[in-house]
Design brief:
Order of helices and strands: HH
Number of helices: 2
Distance between the termini: 16 Å
Shape: elongated
Strand content: under 5%
Length: 82
């Protein structure tokens, strides 16, 4: 998977979470929405993990500082490759 494809996966599942959160704010007992949210959350966390394993942290707070401040050494997560 390319960096752009991995980022799109993170964005897609992140959008699904945010959208479902807003729906659940007004429909908190909707079982289908709750199940969809749980599945989307799992996939979102997996997408983040896959991205970070291959391309580095998505946020500065996810940076492993044992080897220095590597956050600035890779392209920013929102920078798209040409």
């Amino acid at each position: 998977m390319t960096r752009d494809e991995a980022m799109r996966q993170v964005q897609m599942y992140g959008f699904a979470l945010t959208d479902t959160e807003m729906f659940l704010d007004t429909h908190p007992t909707n079982r289908e929405a709750l199940a969809f949210y749980a599945e989307s959350r799992t996939r979102y966390l997996e997408a983040i993990e896959a991205f970070e394993e291959q391309f580095g942290p998505l946020t500065a707070s996810d940076t492993d500082v044992e080897n220095g401040w590597a956050w600035v050494e890779t392209p920013w997560p929102w920078e798209m490759e040409d």
